[in-house]
Specification:
The protein is built from 18 helices and eight strands. By secondary structure, the chain is of the alpha/beta class. The strands form two sheets. It has a six-stranded mixed beta sheet. A two-stranded antiparallel sheet has the order 7-8. Helix 1 links the parallel strand 1 and strand 2. The longest helix has 21 residues.
Length: 430
C-alpha cells in the first residue's frame, strides 16, 4: 500500500506591517508557522517572490526556538514566482508542482492541501482556482480582524468548501461533452457532483438515454428519456428539444403504424451518420448511410407486402412484376428463399414503377461509385479511408431518397436530431 503523505502548498507574501520590512516579515512568518505547526505536514512547498523569500528564514528561526528544525530540501522547498501579479503564471506554477506530486512519484500517495492566505491577491486567486480545478483541499487562516489583520493568538484554520463552484465547473464540462456526443464521459462526470441541489438523477437519465440512442438501442433510450424532468433548471436550454426527441422515441416504441416507426428509425440512423461526420469519422458515417440506403428500399418494399430477406414470387406476380425479372431472382434462390440486397431492392422498386426505383436507376452511376467506395472502406471490405466529400455526396443521395420516401421526413429528421446546449451549428441542415 502507498504511504500517505501530507504536502502543504503555501503562498508567501511580504507582510503588511508598515513599521519595518523586518517586522512585517517576522509577523507573517509567525502566521505561516502557526499553520505549519497545526497541520504537521510531511513537506511544505512555499511559493514566493524573490522579495518574500526572506520570510521563510524567520520560519526556520521559529522552529529552532521550539527545539525543532526546518531544513530546506528535506522539510520544505521554495518555488520562486517572478510574475506575482500574472494569474496565468501563478496558476501554471502551482499546477506544475501538483503534477510532480500527483504523477511523478508512484511510490507515495500524497494529500495536497493548499493555503492561499498570504501572497498577492493574484497569487491567492490563482491558488484557489488551481485547488478547485484539481479538487484539492483549500485552507485559509482566519481569526480576530478588529485591527484589520488577523491578531496573533486568535488564528484559526478554515477549510474552504468549494464544492458548489467545482460542481458548476463540472456541469459546464458535461454540457460541452454532451454537445460533442461524449455521453459516457458525462455519465462518469456525474460521480463528481456532490451538491444535492443539482438534479443528478435527471441528468443521469438524460446522458444514459442519448448514449443508448447513439447505439440505436431505442427501448433503453426511451425508458431513460421519459424519466427526465425537462423543466429542471440545468436542462432549461434544451427542454423543448428533449420533448421533441421523446416524441420521436415514443413513436418508435409505441406507434401502431409500421411505416411511421420505420421512418423514425431511418431518421435516427441518418442523424447518427451526421454525428459521426461531425467527429470526422467518415468511414463510420458512410457505413451508416449505406445502411440508411438499404433501409429506404426495404421500407418502401413493405408497402407492396414485400420483404427483401424473403421475396415471395406470388406477391411479385400480384404486383405485375415481369416474368424476366422474376426469372433473374429465381437464380439467386437459396435454401428455398429469395434474398436480395441493396441494388436488387431498388431495381425491384423500379420494376414496380416506384419513384425511388426510378431515382436509383437515373443516378445509378453515381450511386454505384459511392457504394464501391464504401465497399473498399476499412470498415467494409477494403483498406481505403473515406473523405468528407465522399460523405457529403452520399448524404445528398440518401436525403433525396428519404424525402421521396415520406413527405414528412424533414420533420422526422428534426425530431430525431439530438438536443444540444449550444445549438448554433447545423441548425438548418435539413
Amino acid at each position: 500500500m502507498k504511504r500517505k503523505e501530507v504536502i502543504l502548498f503555501m503562498t508567501v507574501g511580504t507582510g503588511t506591517n508598515l513599521n519595518s520590512n523586518e517586522e512585517s516579515s517576522k509577523d507573517l512568518a509567525q502566521k505561516l508557522f502557526y499553520t505549519i505547526d497545526k497541520m504537521r505536514p510531511n513537506h511544505v512547498v512555499f511559493f514566493a517572490s524573490d522579495k518574500s523569500k526572506e520570510t521563510i528564514g524567520y520560519i526556520e528561526d521559529l522552529f529552532v526556538r521550539d527545539n525543532d528544525e526546518f531544513i530546506e530540501g528535506e522539510d520544505y522547498q521554495i518555488v520562486e514566482i517572478t510574475a506575482i501579479d500574472d494569474l496565468n503564471t501563478c496558476f501554471e506554477t502551482y499546477e506544475q508542482k501538483l503534477w510532480e506530486f500527483d504523477y511523478a512519484d508512484n511510490e507515495k500517495d500524497y494529500q495536497i492541501i493548499m493555503d492561499y492566505t498570504s501572497g498577492t491577491k493574484t497569487m491567492s486567486a490563482a491558488m484557489a482556482s488551481c485547488g478547485m480545478f484539481y479538487s484539492k483541499d483549500l485552507i485559509s487562516i482566519g481569526g480576530d480582524r478588529s485591527t484589520g489583520e488577523v491578531s496573533r493568538g486568535t488564528e484559526i484554520i478554515n477549510y474552504q468548501n468549494i464544492y458548489k463552484i467545482h460542481d458548476k465547473f463540472v456541469l459546464t464540462r458535461t454540457r460541452y461533452n454532451f454537445d460533442a456526443n461524449r455521453f459516457m464521459a458525462c455519465i462518469d462526470m456525474m460521480n463528481y457532483i456532490v451538491d444535492l441541489n443539482i438534479h443528478k438523477e435527471s441528468l443521469l437519465h438524460l446522458f444514459k438515454s442519448y448514449y443508448a440512442w447513439d447505439n440505436m438501442d431505442f427501448e433503453e433510450a426511451y425508458n431513460h428519456l421519459r424519466k427526465v424532468d425537462a423543466n429542471q433548471m440545468e436542462l432549461n436550454d434544451i427542454k423543448n428539444d428533449i420533448k421533441f426527441n421523446l416524441k420521436a422515441l415514443g413513436n418508435i416504441m409505441n406507434s401502431k403504424s409500421v411505416n411511421l416507426k420505420n421512418c423514425y428509425i431511418l431518421a435516427s440512423l441518418i442523424n447518427n451518420s451526421m454525428r459521426r461526420s461531425e467527429e470526422f469519422k467518415y468511414d463510420d458515417a458512410i457505413a451508416r448511410l449505406y445502411r440508411s440506403l438499404e433501409l429506404i428500399a426495404q421500407i418502401e418494399l413493405t408497402k407492396y407486402n414485400l420483404k427483401s430477406s424473403d421475396i415471395k414470387v406470388s406477391t411479385l406476380k400480384e404486383n405485375n412484376v415481369s416474368d424476366e425479372f422474376i426469372a433473374e431472382l429465381e437464380k439467386i434462390r437459396e435454401d428455398g428463399k429469395i434474398r436480395i440486397g441493396l441494388e436488387k431492392d431498388f431495381l425491384l422498386l423500379n420494376e414496380l414503377g416506384n419513384e425511388l426505383g426510378k431515382y436509383y436507376v437515373e443516378n445509378n452511376s453515381k450511386i454505384k461509385n459511392l457504394t464501391k467506395k464504401r465497399n473498399n472502406s476499412i470498415l467494409a471490405h477494403g483498406l481505403d479511408s473515406l473523405t468528407e466529400k465522399d460523405f457529403d455526396e452520399f448524404l445528398d443521395i440518401v436525403l433525396n431518397l428519404s424525402y421521396t420516401l415520406d413527405k414528412d421526413m424533414k420533420k422526422f429528421l428534426k425530431q430525431t436530431k439530438f438536443a444540444k446546449f449550444d445549438n448554433t451549428e447545423n441548425s438548418n441542415i435539413f
